[in-house]
Specification:
The protein is an all-alpha fold. The chain is built from eight helices and no strands. Helix 1 crosses helix 2. The protein is elongated.
Length: 174
């Protein structure tokens, strides 16, 4: 049982309770939700709404760049990070994949890429590989043959370095 708080129940001068409008429930987002929404919005403004929120989330999770600094990024900053660091890493992964021999067919390549990226514990790679697939330079059969181990290798050999470079640039801007 809660205690009665007189200040929350105003009375008229004659002692009778007065009409009081019911207050609206307080609903707010957590700082993490605000952060994620900001990254999605700004990345979408940059035309990179699929891959960059996840890339910047990786940077955030490494805890070397503050959440506040990441939230201060504008669309132009995100485009520059992508162009300078992430796109070259994706290009390197593309070159690696384009030199492989296709060994399997996948009817739903995006679902396959998402699944194997999740299996590898690298969900960001699902978006990275979607960018590559949209370029149409690597066959769907090559994508369909990728395993979680392949995803891990591509991340470690190419994408992680791009994220490292973007992270260093962000640290230097503080």
């Amino acid at each position: 049982m809660t205690n009665f708080n007189e200040s929350e129940h105003p009375r008229a001068a004659d002692g009778a309770f007065t009409e009081k409008r019911q207050s609206e429930p307080q609903v707010s987002l957590t700082s993490r939700e605000v952060f994620e929404q900001r990254l999605r919005t700004t990345s979408t403004e940059a035309g990179l709404g699929g891959v960059m929120p996840q890339i910047l989330d990786v940077v955030h999770d490494r805890e070397n760049v503050s959440q506040e600094d990441l939230m201060d990024l504008e669309a132009g900053d995100i485009t520059a990070l992508y162009d300078d660091h992430i796109a070259p890493a994706i290009d390197a992964a593309e070159f690696d994949l384009s030199n492989r021999t296709a060994t399997a067919e996948a009817s739903d390549v995006r679902a396959h890429l998402t699944r194997v990226a999740r299996e590898a514990g690298l969900e960001v790679m699902g978006e990275v590989l979607s960018v590559l697939r949209d370029r149409e330079t690597v066959s769907d059969s090559t994508f369909g043959a990728l395993t979680a181990d392949d995803i891990t290798a591509l991340y470690e050999e190419h994408i992680s370095a791009g994220i490292d470079d973007a992270e260093r640039e962000l640290q230097g801007s503080n």
